[in-house]
Amino acid sequence: MNSPAMLTDMYEYTMLDAALQDGTANRRCVFEVFTRHLPTGRRYGIAAGLGRILEYLPHFKPSEDDIAFLVDRHVISKTTAQWLENFQFTGTIRAYPEGEAFFANSPIVQVEGTFAECTLLETLILSVLNFDCAVASAASRMTSAAGGRPCMDMGGRRTNEYAAIAAARASIVGGFQGTANLAAAQAYNLPCIGTAAHAFTLLHDSERDAFVSQINALGVGTTLLTDTYSIEDAITTAVEVAGTELGGIRIDSGDLASLAQQARKQLDALGATSTTITVTNDLDEYAIAALATAPVDSYGVGTQLVTGSGQPTCAMVYKLVEREGSDGRMHPVAKRSFGKRTDGWRKQALRSYRYGLAQGELVLCGSADDLAKWEPSEEYGEVRDMLICAVDHGDIDTSLTTTDALFAARDHHWKSLQDLPVTALSLSQGDQAIPTEVLNISE
Amino acid sequence: MNSPAMLTDMYEYTMLDAALQDGTANRRCVFEVFTRHLPTGRRYGIAAGLGRILEYLPHFKPSEDDIAFLVDRHVISKTTAQWLENFQFTGTIRAYPEGEAFFANSPIVQVEGTFAECTLLETLILSVLNFDCAVASAASRMTSAAGGRPCMDMGGRRTNEYAAIAAARASIVGGFQGTANLAAAQAYNLPCIGTAAHAFTLLHDSERDAFVSQINALGVGTTLLTDTYSIEDAITTAVEVAGTELGGIRIDSGDLASLAQQARKQLDALGATSTTITVTNDLDEYAIAALATAPVDSYGVGTQLVTGSGQPTCAMVYKLVEREGSDGRMHPVAKRSFGKRTDGWRKQALRSYRYGLAQGELVLCGSADDLAKWEPSEEYGEVRDMLICAVDHGDIDTSLTTTDALFAARDHHWKSLQDLPVTALSLSQGDQAIPTEVLNISE
């Protein structure tokens, strides 16, 4: 398995090498992660992945073998190889907490340190955020659509095997209740769920044999898969075998709304009134919303969760916005590339509220001094600072990497949505829920 | 890092546990991986990921800690825990070779063994194939559109950090020439490429300083990023600094066709006639095709490569098609779920050719005996057997996991495309390039 320090693009190391040689590697820098726009029609995004970045950080150092590889491939010089032997990130990272709603130009992560240490982190930070935020944002739309009904991640098989673990974690941030993925359950101590595959029924000489076997192994509280042959026959058999205490049934095909109605009626008629109905057939937020009035107890979501429901990446970029000059002072920097301009200076992100309801995202650009002195005028109502300090001069806030923090992020996600105008929860295409104002206060 | 045996859904283990208890775990089974349909409008898919599955296979065994976790979470009983301590896959895996074109219902992987050993592999096999085939399929469309011009993977930052490695590998299968991703270059001994980020220019007091630094570190053969400020000024500076032997320039924004034209004229006028032009701004196969007449030398592709160009997963499923009954004989099995029916019996996939051109995909379903006896009638022309044996009763063909095999897969990919009707390479929406015929020969 690779060191996290190799989960990156080559040019981070060639830039490091060149900067060490020309003396700019130690210039103080501020890099920021943001997206220029939400995916078309989306009202908000959900920040996720910070905890995973913090988990990687202490291990972000190329091994001896990695360094030998880099030298051998002429990516770095021997001087840089020596420098890397002692590498440790000693900078500061501020970020939107996981579960927070974000918008276009929200500086969801801000990395401050030397050019050398900040540039090495670029690719890994972007990989984590682009994927995790995509999944959490989709998850959030699905859980909103589901109302109080639990949503479960069953998507691991539809994405890369390690992405599956990250997806399970990000889905929790976006309001999911559990995952089918064992590695994720193990890594993050998450509730793990599962029923059975059609293969299990087909393996047996009869559906009854399969149900008996599953109940013998897992008890009557288990969930039986009932759509291998006839759903009606399967439910009859299931209740015969398990009794009315049967935990649940799962339907994985067909018109879920009408099938759930029929199944509920049949279960109730058989006395299995507390047996739950889980549905799992290519669900997305729209399908979930359409099932609102169907007697469904929980949703198992696969493909559309792990692929961000049509938006598998978040277009997050990592841009240098401020750096030390030869005069030893910090200067704003910005590229002018067509359609990809950036705003110089570090950002301070504030969310303004009136009567507890979010009104807008105010992104101030300015020198550290000017930002410290800035006072919001009354027009902004109450303002909340969006960035928390996750790493302070190399000191990682490890409380942000725990399972408790993950569930706290889910709670924060609900609170963050609650504070937005109600149109934020609309699934139809529209503008972002609150506007972003970018304000340069230094010049 | 988790054992590969945990990169899976919980239900694989609960099914194993139940089957061990009821005595069906050792029934011989045949599982098959296929997709019911190509993504809308796609003409073909490209098989990729088999080598990665084979790499995982010897390590696919839960560790002591994993087993303790599974027992602790009541996923498995102590009997199953003991059984897992000695687990080793001893079955047979046949598959479409990497780089092969596939279609709806092509059985791209066939796993034969006991229910116990085959079911445990389901999730991991699907994760690998769903992601890797999605990337290879997109890569293939891009490299076809690029004609002979090299395409390079720069997408690692747009997907999960480990998915990035798999994407780099799969892009090679689909015809790419190299990757920016160091971990992938290291793991698979791939050509690694890179230029510089805008941050590197912004870090310096002037663009000239940045170019001088990069050339000092990497030589004049390097590729300079020229769109931080004015492209025209940057090219002038680049040639002043590097001389006419400058390796290349990269343009990452704006209208790439016209900018490449202008850049080429300017470079030629400055005498830098061999300096190459790389473009990298959110390219997909359509953008690449549109640049066919522009003086572009290579394409750096990011987001659209690693997200499968709109199709981030392949809808591959893993289905039990044949299993031993209580009579000790093999029986076909198929579920009848609405819209998700399967065909029983193991498959033999043949591609039929006339005058060297592929005519159709013939998927025979039948008992092993009947398949062995079957002879194609003349109407099928010449037929080629699509499945190769990758694992023979537990014995892994490790020659399929080497870097040589990866580049051979790329060659095979070109050959496979060449044999298809020319409409296969059309980027417009259409039917699959050749039809799939599913033929049950046993009954």
TrEMBL record, chains A, B:
Organism: Galliscardovia ingluviei
Family: Belongs to the NAPRTase family.
Function (record text): Catalyzes the first step in the biosynthesis of NAD from nicotinic acid, the ATP-dependent synthesis of beta-nicotinate D-ribonucleotide from nicotinate and 5-phospho-D-ribose 1-phosphate.
InterPro entries: Aldolase_TIM (IPR013785), N/Namide_PRibTrfase (IPR041525), NAPRTase_N (IPR040727), Nic_PRibTrfase-Fam (IPR007229), Nic_PRibTrfase_pncB (IPR006405), Nicotinate_pribotase-like_C (IPR036068)
Gene Ontology BP term (one): NAD+ biosynthetic process via the salvage pathway
Free-text description of this protein's post-translational modifications in UniProt: Transiently phosphorylated on a His residue during the reaction cycle. Phosphorylation strongly increases the affinity for substrates and increases the rate of nicotinate D-ribonucleotide production. Dephosphorylation regenerates the low-affinity form of the enzyme, leading to product release.
Catalytic activity, as annotated: 5-phospho-alpha-D-ribose 1-diphosphate + nicotinate + ATP + H2O = nicotinate beta-D-ribonucleotide + ADP + phosphate + diphosphate
Name of a matching Pfam family: NAPRTase_N
Protein's name according to its UniProt entry: Nicotinate phosphoribosyltransferase
